[in-house]
Amino acid sequence: MLRIRLAERCLASGRRDGFIGGPVHLGIGQEAVATGVASVLRKSDRIFGGHRSHSHVLSMGGSVYRLFAEVLARKTGMSRGMGGSMHLWDQPNGFYGAVPIVAGTVPLAVGAGLAAKFQGTQDIGLAYLGDGAMEEGVVHESLNLARMLKAPVLFVVENNLFASHMHISLRQPSETMARFAIANDIDYAVVDGNDVVKTRLAAAALVQRIRSGQGPGFLEAVTFRWFGHVDWREDIDVGVHRSADEVNAWRKRDPIARLYEGLCNAGCFDEGQMKVLEQRISQEVQDAWERALNDEPPSANAISEYVYGKRAA
């Protein structure tokens, strides 16, 4: 969680200071969801994200340096510098891709899960999506298809209460997303998405059931992003029902601080260890940023090469 937090803070600063040309969608405050879920996954699983997926790829062991290089449009990036923050790919670590099309990867996760089923691997497909994506028709088609075919796929809904700038109370008759799992007869769990332990336990139970061949699962993790829809601003001036008081209230539920306090209270960790950890990861992130910043961008011919490929002689 700390690595994700510090990496995204670095990206926020880079965007604010003009080093990053494209938009970055930050999930600071939501680190416990990806961290808890990833802790029960295999690298052979097939994971898909959306436009806010830095945490998803890093939680699977993705390189901070290659993430930075991608966002900075360097040829050493995860997608060779051609996609930026919203087009991440790290298949060796199980991350099959993120796209900016809301809910665009949800049916792909179902297909990937079905492929794993036919291959007999006991791997699963996994789709990360937000509460806003639940309003896309393709999600409901995917839920139905996954249930009917008993596809080994886990739908993880990061319910941060906002779609872009609009609060869920202005978009849906209920704030709970689990009602869609109930409607499709899919096993589900609802957790405090700012509690990494509870998220891990709920994900573990669902994943175990999915791997045993009992069909899809649905995890709703209620959380909150500290920053606005895109880039480093809090957006408390453009959001509906998003106030400074609400943001501050959620900051008090910081998933990293909660885990730290829990470990200290249990006698498993202390302030000195935390400082060493922060210093080590902070240096790692800074080194990755400086290295990526000095890398070369893709060549002018790269677009045609990647899109059309080289013609056979």
Q: Which features does this protein show?
A:
313 residues; alpha/beta; 6-stranded parallel β-sheet; two-stranded antiparallel ribbon; 8 strands; globular
Could you characterize the architecture of this molecule?
It is a single chain. By secondary structure, this protein is an alpha/beta fold. It is built from twelve helices and eight strands. It has helices at 2-16, 31-38, 54-59, 64-71, 106-119, 137-148, 178-183, 196-211, 244-251, 255-265, 271-293, 302-308; strands at 46-49, 95-98, 125-130, 153-159, 162-163, 166-167, 187-192, 217-222. Strands 2-1-3-4-8-7 form a six-stranded parallel beta sheet, sandwiched between helices. Helix 1 (2-16) packs across helix 11 (271-293), helix 4 crosses helix 11 (271-293) and helix 5 runs parallel beside helix 6. The longest helix has 23 residues, at 271-293. It is globular, with a radius of gyration of 19 Å.
Shape: globular
End-to-end separation in angstroms reads 49 Å
Portion in helices:
40-55%
Let me know the largest β-sheet. Answer: 6 strands, parallel
How do the strands line up in the largest sheet? 2-1-3-4-8-7
Class inferred from helices and paired strands: alpha/beta
